[in-house]
Structure formats: structure tokens, C-alpha cells
Amino acid sequence: MTLTIKTNNIPRETYQIFQLDEKEQQQVRKQFDYYNEEELQEQNFFKYKNHWYCLSDFLRLENSDTFKGWEGYSSDSYFSGVLIKIQEGFMGDWNVIVGRYCS
């Protein structure tokens, strides 16, 4: 089985909920309704392909031969999902490089 990873290697900013506009905050609160308000304030989010992701929902990858160079993943199905690489941003915040994998 062949594994395909697609990425454009462009860093994306992460945001805390207070940095989002009102419409985006509503979207995030609805999508991540399993977090209470206090927990939401502590999370970092990013948007990829018109979908919000939370860094806490990614599983950490260590010494993975399959996903070499990637730091975390979130599965969409048994055969596909989203990969991330985390980078420190210019102002001490975090950026992520996002990729999709499928087999």
C-alpha cells in the first residue's frame, strides 16, 4: 500500500479564541463543543481548507518511519488524515505546516 502526503509547506498561524472575530468564535465554539469555556481559552486553533483544527486534538508522532519529519496527526479515516509540523513564530507564538495523507 502506497502512502501519499500532500503539503504546500506554507506555515499557518495558530490562534487563541479571543483572537478570532465573532463569527469565527461561534464556529469554533460549535465545532469544539466538548470543551467548556475555560478549556477553550487555553486551546490553539488553526484553519486549513475551510475547517478549524485544535492542536490538542492531534496525536504526537515520535520516531515514525511512516510519517518521517511530521510531529502530529489527526485521522479522518483508517486511510487518511491531517499531519502537522509545529514551528515557533516570529512573536513567540506557534505556526503549523499542514499536510494531508492518504493510502
Helices and strands, with pairings:
Elements lengths: L3 E4 L4 E2 L8 H10 L5 H5 L3 E4 L2 E4 L4 E2 L11 E4 L4 E9 L5 E9 L1
Antiparallel strand pairs: 1-8, 2-8, 3-4, 5-6, 6-7, 7-8
What is the distance, rounded to the nearest whole angstrom, between the alpha carbons of the first and last residues?
6 Å
Number of helices: 2
Overall form: globular
Kindly report the average pLDDT value: 92
The structural domain count equals 1
Secondary structure tally: strands: 8
Could you give the order of the helices and strands?
Answer: EEHHEEEEEE
Low-confidence stretches at least 5 residues in length (pLDDT < 50)? none
Oligomer: single chain
Give the proportion of residues in helices.
Answer: 10-25%
Biggest β-sheet: count, sense, barrel?
Answer: 6 strands, antiparallel
- Report the structural category: mainly beta
Strand content: 35-45%
Write down the Rg: 14 Å
Descriptive account of the structure:
With 103 residues, this protein is mainly β. The chain has one domain (4-102). The protein has helices at residues 22-31, 37-41, and strands spanning 4-7, 12-13, 45-48, 51-54, 59-60, 72-75, 80-88, 94-102. Strands 1, 2, 5, 6, 7 and 8 form a 6-stranded antiparallel sheet that branches. A hairpin with a 4-residue loop joins strand 6 and strand 7 (80-88). The longest helix has 10 residues, at 22-31.
Describe this structure in a few short sentences:
With 103 residues, the chain is mainly beta. 15% of the residues lie in helices and 37% in strands. It is built from two helices and eight strands.
